[in-house]
Design goal:
The complex is a heterodimer of chains A (293) and B (226).
Chain A lengths: L7 E12 L4 E11 L3 E6 L5 H9 L5 E6 L2 E4 L12 E4 L11 H6 L5 H10 L15 H13 L5 E5 L7 H17 L3 E6 L2 H7 L2 E6 L2 E6 L1 H5 L9 E11 L4 E7 L2 E7 L1 H6 L5 E5 L12
Parallel strand pairs in A: 3-8, 3-9, 6-7, 7-8
Antiparallel strand pairs in A: 1-2, 1-4, 4-5, 9-10, 11-12, 11-14, 12-13
Helix pairs in contact in A: 4-5
Chain B lengths: L4 H30 L5 H13 L2 H12 L4 H10 L7 H26 L2 H9 L4 H9 L4 H17 L2 H7 L9 H10 L3 H36 L1
């Protein structure tokens, strides 16, 4: 068995055959994550992202090794059930218990009312504690699900496309909350996401998944920002961030699966804000040409 | 003056049968809803048989199986001094078998309707199967649970053929309401038969009305939300 390197907390080396919608897929990954890291998993639908998350949580079995803080969660002899893994899991569709009020959803995990109220206050939803899940909006449900996942005081927080059903404003708010919880509870977080802007904003490192295998594992800025190799001259995108400097203003724009940086003028900045949908175009004689490393 | 003994007997029988079936039905339906075994269709067929079999056929087989001369009936007679034919205990056993599908089918449908994510979420909250069943699964299928209980109860109150075959009509022991009506008609006491029948009709109507009313109310509540 491989030994976990110093400073690394989670070692994952798993293998599972999946019967996908189109063809069989062989999920085969091996990577290590440091304590306190925020990792995003990015890739097309059906590439095995969610399955990997479920394997880490213990909801699905697989061959291989999962080691967390020198404790074996999975190897050829042992399979630690989800109940015994120190994990918080936030489902894509929340999976709140419809028969319990918000506070009871949290207390179901652990009967610690003070801690539950603390979490609800941090998420600014303490006034919803006596509501049933059906009376909550999508964003509110998502926050309750997040609080519930944290009730176990998990070592690892797993998020399965947590923002996919939310509008952009709510998305931003929740992203900030996730960062806050991640830091406050010293969590190691693994998030599955389709959105480059989300990944860029939240994660320390990202895994690019292709056909069940890891294609890239690096900082999001190294993978996503690629300002000099656009093949098209005009594209539609969304402003993710605007950085104001003394001399120039830079907008980070999400186009397709890539983020680009673009200099914008003082005049343009007045009409633009984060979240705006924009068309980015350039004329041929303004293009940069650089040698590829 | 109306003799209410047959009604009391009917309700006592139904109450006991429903209670027994609830205990057997929950684990059995849970198993049926979750199993991927190849014997599932076979088990489902066995469970549903009492719906299509003529009650006289079921009653005949039960009479044979439960009689003191048979293996099972003989065993109970010898070791527990319990006669399973023409006795209240026999009626309970026969009714449990006869009403089995009416308990199992709504429960199985209920278990199958529960979102698997909720069960997984409960496991991820650190809870085992038992707590998940009682705190998450059953409370989220209240309608199915209620339907199963009421329909089983009502069906046991209303049964006739099996009861007559296995229990006969011993007043105060096995003469339930439905059998009593048959007896009154046989001796041409139409007045009593009328009264008994009207009471049964009214009770059946009320029971079914409660089921549909509650289901509709819950449906509307869900409709208001979305």
């Amino acid at each position: 068995m491989k030994k976990t390197k110093e400073g690394y907390m989670i070692f994952i080396d798993v293998n599972k055959k999946l019967c996908g919608t189109k063809e069989e897929l062989n999920l085969d990954v091996c990577f290590e994550i440091k304590k306190g890291e925020f990792i995003s998993i990015f890739g097309k639908s059906g590439s095995g992202k969610t399955t990997l998350l479920r394997i880490i949580a213990g909801l699905e079995k697989a061959k291989g090794i999962i080691k967390v803080d020198n404790q074996i969660w999975l190897d050829n002899k042992k399979f630690l059930p989800p109940q015994k893994r120190e994990i918080g899991f936030v489902f894509q569709d929340y999976a709140l218990f419809p028969n319990m009020k918000v506070l009871d959803n949290l207390l179901y995990v652990k009967n610690d009312k003070d801690f539950a109220m603390k979490l609800l206050k941090m998420a600014e939803i303490e006034n919803l504690k006596d509501r049933y899940p059906y009376a909550l909006s999508g964003g509110q449900k998502q926050r309750v699900a997040l609080c519930r996942a944290l009730m176990r005081k998990p070592k690892i927080l797993l998020l399965d496309e947590p923002f996919s059903a939310l509008d952009s404003e709510m998305r931003e708010k929740l992203q900030n909350e996730i960062i806050m919880f991640h830091k406050e509870f010293n969590l190691t977080t693994i998030m599955v996401s389709h959105s480059p802007s989300e990944i860029y904003k939240l994660s320390d490192r990202m895994i690019v998944f292709k056909n069940g295998k890891i294609e890239k594992f690096d900082k999001p800025s190294n993978i996503l920002i690629n300002s000099s190799s656009s093949e098209k001259f005009s594209m539609y995108g969304e402003i993710v961030d605007i950085k104001k400097n003394d001399i120039i203003n830079v907008a980070i724009i999400s186009i397709g699966n890539k983020l680009i940086e673009s200099v914008i003028s003082e005049k343009e900045i007045k009409n633009l804000k984060i979240g705006d949908k924009v068309m980015v175009s350039t004329k041929a004689f303004f293009l940069n040409v650089k040698e590829e490393n | 003056m109306i003799n209410f003994t047959p009604f009391i007997l009917s309700f006592k029988l139904s109450f006991i049968v429903t209670l027994i079936l609830l205990f057997i039905g929950i684990p059995f339906a849970y198993f049926l809803a979750n199993t991927k075994s190849k014997i599932k269709p076979f088990l489902e067929t066995i469970v549903s048989l009492p719906i299509v079999l003529p009650p006289s056929v079921l009653g005949f087989y039960l009479l044979i199986t439960l009689s003191p001369n048979s293996l099972i009936g003989g065993f109970f007679y010898k070791y527990f001094n319990m006669k399973l034919v023409f006795s209240f205990e026999g009626l309970v056993i026969a009714s449990v078998i006869y009403s089995f599908p009416f308990m199992i089918q709504p429960l199985q449908a209920g278990f199958e309707s529960i979102d698997k994510k909720l069960i997984e979420a409960s496991y991820l909250c650190g809870k085992g199967k038992f707590i998940t069943l009682f705190k998450v699964i059953l409370p989220n299928m209240k309608n199915s649970l209620l339907t199963a209980i009421i329909i089983t109860f009502a069906h046991t109150v209303g049964e006739f053929g099996v009861v007559l075959m296995v229990g006969g009509s011993i007043p105060g022991k096995t003469e339930v309401a439905s059998v009593a009506i048959y007896d009154y008609v046989e001796i041409m006491d139409y007045k009593s038969a009328h009264i008994y029948s009207a009471i049964m009709l009214l009770l059946s109507f009320i029971v079914l009305f409660i089921v549909y009313f509650i289901n509709e109310k819950n449906k509307r509540r869900l409709h208001d939300i979305y």
